[in-house]
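INTERNAL AUDIT FORM
Audit reference: QA-55
Scope: verify that the stored structure record matches its stored sequence.
Auditor: D.O.
Record contents follow.
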Amino acid sequence: MDNDNALTHKEIYRYSRQLMLPEIGMRGQRKLKAASVLIIGMGGLGSPISMYLAAAGVGRLGLVDNDLVDSSNLQRQIVHGMSTLGKQKVDSARERLLDNNPEIKIDVYRELFTTENARRIATDYDILIDGTDNLPTRYLINDLCVLLGKPYVYGSVFRFEGQVSVFDARKGPCYRCLFPEPPPPWLVPSCAEVGVMGVVPGLVGTLQASETIKLIVDIGSHLIGKLLLIDTLSVSFNEINIHKDPNCSVCGSNHQTIELIDYEQFCGMPGKDKIFPGNRWMIEPKELDIRLKRGDQIQLVDVREPHELEISSIQGACLIPLGLLTSRLSDLNRTEEVVLFCRTNQRSTHALELLISAGFSDVKILNGGINAWAREVDPNQPIY
């Protein structure tokens, strides 16, 4: 064993409860010290992942995120706190993790994980862990792991549910074997749009950390070729088998040379400026307020869910949840201007696509959604 990974007396005492496990012992703890793990996303999943891997003694952690800590994060992103509001998430997390374990090395990347920088960031790490909540990054992580021959520890959450798996194309299926093509983006909204119970990413992230430790130490059975489904409302854990797809475009027997692509375009999720250039499709809150007050004929359509009306609302708006919009197009007058809004812009952007595809020509999005309306027009409405 490399002397660089020998355990000091201080480390032996720190990790004593793990060392007492025969499956780990001194040999396993030295493997943990020698390991390097990249965690992509320092939010709800990245918080428990990073905290447990740091506490377990993984020698090098890489943290990737370009976001800042906001008070709305604290309900689930437990690595952050009130004292780090406004800080870069990777810096906030690094501070917390080193407070727990100053014996490890932590590298931070204050940037989005993209096609352009993914290889540069990930090449030197043994394992990549998905702590994100968006499809483009998942496909990017998967393809990169296949390309570099690394395991991809996957986790996702949705409201009260979660999923966990390990994708390793050298030993089993990859993410594309399970999901060859992405679903329409409006079918996979982010936690910011649909919400999540705080303990769900904690549970999923802890399981991701557990899988990572087992991979490093090489103990137990792994979730390679399996997808663990978690439902916290019914307290159920179900496991389904995943098989390698011989025709997989990335890891199949006839796949071409792997190239990292434009994953936002692949998932149908380019930024709104790429879909609708300019401000033709946007109306600012103050402008909308002026036009409503002077009596302009505007159909104001709220594409949020019914329970969100208890949080905030705009007088005179018609509620048509995004999932019902296609079936309720007849409720809208095609001769009048339509203004769509949601909490921010995500669901209303998809609603705009649907209406334009259906032949509506005079459609706009309330820029920034009802949260922007609360900030700029009606401060009596809460922001959420």
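Auditor finding: record pair retrieved intact. The longest strand covers residues 152-158.
Action required: none
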